[in-house]
């Protein structure tokens, strides 16, 4: 299967990005043809500091490598290095419908968030660029968190519509969801997803030092009562912490409930903090070593650019031919 997924360089990666997306990528690269990109063209749809963007993009590349993506097993590249993404996006804007784009939950949320400063057209067209990212490589599987499933459904609609109007070309890509961690919630507002653009205490960044991780988990909101039970509707905060514990420890939620049921929130949170801190400090040590090899990071992205561009140019040529543009 050909797999593709990406992350925006819009801030520091958090455990939601890791558990919902990257953890699966690391497993998938063992058996599938994988392409993983840094979607910088998506990140510019929100207010950002141009001087920081290059470093942010490199930071994500460092995170990818330190978490375990292996450039011998997958293609790692930067979206804006491949001009075919934006060219295909334009072609696909004639296939997507405005009503479909306006119905996207992420667009509605962000349009509300940025209403005062004005909503740029890129926010509305974001899912068409995402469809172009995916279809350009004739991707079959897209490992993402649950929040991206709606965008992926739209990609399938665009692929289907293109195929029936211009002739068969694109596979209809499927979402691949993590069994645990497809939707990690905010530590402060457990009914909202954990997000890198929300307040710092609401997420655990992959770069947080052990003491900060322990503190954030200690301060995470909990539900009323004292018993440890898994009940996402009745006890969303606790269930979220159980999901995180489960994903980091490899024990399932039922087993954790048996182990901690009557030991109280304090011990449960303390031990959860230790498990998360231990795994993230291994990642941080590896990342620190990689920080000293900027030429290696550049070389990985350059090799990725060349490999991705070969596929991208071929697909774009086929698309234009089918659309009568050559
Ligand atoms: N809370 C989450 N739980 C599980 N998966 C998540 N993902 C994001 N948040 C969670 C998954 O991470 C991948 C990369 O996401 P992205 O950075 O491209 O954009 P996003 O979904 O908008 O992530 P954020 O953190 O919420 O960023 P901002 O705040 O910039 O909008 C995707 O696969 C996503 O599903």
TrEMBL record:
L-tryptophan binds at residue 133. InterPro entries: aa-tRNA-synth_I_CS (IPR001412), aa-tRNA-synth_Ic (IPR002305), Rossmann-like_a/b/a_fold (IPR014729), Trp-tRNA-ligase (IPR002306), Trp-tRNA-ligase_bac-type (IPR024109), Trp-tRNA_synthetase (IPR050203). Its EC number is 6.1.1.2. The keyword Glycoprotein does not apply. One of its GO terms (biological process) is tryptophanyl-tRNA aminoacylation. It is found in: Cytoplasm. It catalyses: tRNA(Trp) + L-tryptophan + ATP = L-tryptophyl-tRNA(Trp) + AMP + diphosphate + H(+). Its main location: cytoplasm. GO terms for molecular function: ATP binding; tryptophan-tRNA ligase activity. It is an enzyme of class 6 (ligase). A motif ('HIGH' region) lies at residues 9-17. One of its GO terms (cellular component) is cytosol. Keywords: Aminoacyl-tRNA synthetase, ATP-binding, Cytoplasm, Ligase, Nucleotide-binding, Protein biosynthesis. It comes from the Bacteria. ATP binds at residues 8-10, 16-17, 145-147, 184, 193-197. PANTHER family: TRYPTOPHAN--TRNA LIGASE, MITOCHONDRIAL (PTHR43766:SF1). Homodimer. Belongs to the class-I aminoacyl-tRNA synthetase family. Catalyzes the attachment of tryptophan to tRNA(Trp). NCBIfam families: trpS (TIGR00233). This is Tryptophan--tRNA ligase. It comes from Candidatus Terrybacteria bacterium RIFCSPHIGHO2_01_FULL_48_17.
């Amino acid at each position: 299967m050909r797999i593709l997924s990406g992350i925006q360089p819009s801030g520091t990666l958090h455990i939601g990005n890791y558990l919902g997306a990257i953890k699966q990528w690391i497993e998938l690269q063992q058996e599938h043809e994988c392409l993983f990109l840094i979607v910088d063209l998506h990140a510019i749809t929100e207010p950002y500091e141009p001087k920081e963007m290059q470093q942010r993009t490199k930071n994500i590349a460092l995170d990818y490598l330190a978490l375990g993506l292996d450039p011998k097993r997958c293609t790692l590249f930067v979206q804006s290095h491949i001009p075919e993404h934006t060219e295909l996006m334009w072609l696909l804007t004639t296939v997507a419908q405005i009503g479909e784009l306006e119905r996207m939950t992420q667009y509605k949320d962000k349009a509300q968030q940025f209403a005062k400063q004005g909503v740029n057209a890129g926010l509305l067209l974001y899912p068409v660029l995402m469809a172009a990212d995916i279809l350009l490589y004739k991707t079959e599987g897209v490992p993402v968190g649950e929040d991206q499933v709606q965008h992926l459904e739209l990609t399938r609609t665009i692929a289907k519509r293109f195929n029936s109007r211009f002739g068969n070309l694109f596979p209809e890509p499927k979402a691949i969801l993590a069994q645990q961690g497809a939707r990690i919630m905010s530590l402060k507002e457990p009914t909202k997803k954990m997000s890198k653009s929300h307040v710092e205490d609401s997420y655990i960044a992959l770069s947080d030092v052990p003491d900060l991780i322990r503190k954030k988990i200690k301060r995470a909101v909990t539900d009323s009562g004292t018993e440890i039970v898994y009940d996402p509707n009745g006890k969303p905060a606790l269930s979220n912490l159980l999901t995180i514990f489960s994903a980091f420890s490899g024990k399932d939620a039922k087993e954790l409930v048996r182990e901690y049921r009557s030991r109280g929130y304090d011990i449960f949170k303390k031990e959860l903090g230790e498990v998360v801190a231990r795994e993230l400090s291994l990642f941080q040590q590896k990342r620190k070593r990689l920080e000293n090899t900027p030429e290696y990071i550049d070389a990985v992205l350059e090799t990725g650019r060349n490999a991705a561009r070969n596929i991208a140019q071929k697909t774009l040529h086929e698309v234009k031919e089918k659309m009568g543009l050559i």
